[in-house]
């Protein structure tokens, strides 16, 4: 299956400058990662920070398996339907769809495995699971949220988090991808949430990264990490520090 590119300013050449447009950056990011992400979507925030809508994206498709029919890909249908999706960022973050929840709390969420997707309890993750998505990760970025999805089980990865940040911190050459400010972090915002199946890992659920901590008295934002209540990591060195 050919890769699906839908972007208001898509690049037709892989030799284009890395900062030429966001779509090229997303495509390059997916191709450079060792794990197989099926798609990347940038959910763009409205000027009033109340709505997230499709801003840009790249669909790579599921990993091809010899001897299987790849003419039909549920993930492609899920991606195409996402083009018309929008999410209202409402108060009470736990009731929000996953991208809106991440945008409102400034806390990335990484869901790996069927149990994690089911436990999230929102329409976005349920729909993703029905279309064969095994791993769904959302990251707060300037101007919105980056969503990654894969038909494979992918454990959380610090290097990937740093690369996601780099995509949106490079000086843009296109006004369409110029970053907008993120909303103020919720005081009760949790860190990154991860829940995995026991057959894949002994990590139960750990909040291991928070995009931003509370503001200091002078108004500057202090970086911080938070730990999910009643969740611990049994992997050496992977537990979050409060």
Automatic annotation (TrEMBL):
Keywords: Nucleus, Transcription, Transcription regulation. Residues 22-61, 68-168 form the Transcription factor MYC/MYB N-terminal domain. GO terms for molecular function: DNA-binding transcription factor activity; transcription cis-regulatory region binding. One of its GO terms (cellular component) is nucleus. This is Transcription factor. It comes from Musa troglodytarum. Residues 228-242 have a biased composition (Polar residues). Pfam families: bHLH-MYC_N. Residues 210-242 are annotated as: Disordered. It is found in: Nucleus. The lineage of its organism: Eukaryota, Viridiplantae, Streptophyta, Embryophyta, Tracheophyta.
